[in-house]
Amino acid sequence: MIVRRVWCLVGPTATGKTALAIAMANEAPIEVVSADSRMIYRWMDIGTAKPSVTERANVAHHLIDCADPDEPFTVVDWVARARAAMERIWARGRQPLVVGGTGLYFRALCDGLEIPPVPPDEDLRNALEERATREGWQALQAELHLIDPASASRIEGRNVRRVIRAIEVTRATGRPFSAWQQRLAPPFEVSWAGLDLPRDVLDVTIDARVSGQVKAGLRQEVRGLLDRGYSRSLPPMRGLAYREMVELIDAATTPDEAVHRYRAVTRQYARRQQSWFRPDPRITWFDPRTVDPREVVAHLADGQSQGDQG
User: Is the pLDDT of residue 55 over 70?
Assistant: First the structure.
């Protein structure tokens, strides 16, 4: 019986996952499946740190540039496309390597997390975000506690986006968001590897990336999106890099303030990624400063970290 295995490479932003994946392609017949919730959008290249055109020409990448910024694209959509891509990769006799930092994508794909079939309700989300701004995040946390105490106890209240999603799903389905957290083992095995850095080193790396993106034309990229008619209120336009550049374009901030803010929110995002992945005992961690791609390939091929998928 042929064992179908998925290799996963995870970790916080700016730790060099893309570079390592491409180096690993010199050691094994891999194709990359991107697990980044922002790389799915077309015309959002610099701010999402997409692999370059040359890198993508040399190593096949999937789940990049598959939606316009105004197209709804859910976790359910991503999982369906990721599984289809993996089937095609296996059929070619090659190895899928899922690379990224969007923890929910990995949980849905590799742990069989049941995802509620509820599309984003932008009117509700905007109303709840305005309420959080007006009354504080505690107001939304209190509402969630009334309708789904289990989720309220598990979701950090300051993570307003996740609290809003829990309220949204519970209202739409009449079923608590926490009740959707059932898991079914996927029909493949999984090997895990991760990249991480000490926080002080990661902060320096993040600062350097931000500066590089600004010099590479991040502001012009965002201006191009606005000129294409994409609204400032779209979720991708409110994400890291894009929100700060929109504020700069709108003269709501100065260049120095925009860069400072972008660095700060990226550091916060990296902390959340570390908190998501670090407790998972299946992940073997490597230091990107010294990692040998051959070692990571050997580790994943051996299936040492596939662990208990439940």
Answer: yes
Domains and CATH numbers, the chain: 5-114+182-302 (3.40.50.300), 122-180 (1.10.20.140)
Chain segment 248-258, per-residue pLDDT in tens: 999 999 999 99
Q: What is the pTM of this model?
A: 0.86
Token pair, residue 72, equals 């709804």
CA separation (Å) from 104 to 108, 110, 169, 174, 176? Answer: 6, 10, 16, 22, 18
CB half-sphere exposure, 96, CA atoms < 13 A: 26
Q: What angle do CA 112, 113, 119 make, to 5 degrees?
A: 125
Question: Rounded distance, CA 127 to CA 132, Å?
Answer: 9
Q: How deeply is 124 buried, as exposed, middle or buried, from its count of CB atoms within 10 A (0-12, 13-18, 19+)?
A: middle
CB atoms within 10 A of CB 32: 29
Residue with tokens 């359910």: 76
d(CA 102, CA 94): 24
268: which residues sit within 8 A by CB, 6+ positions away? none
- Two structure tokens written together for 193: 């590897």
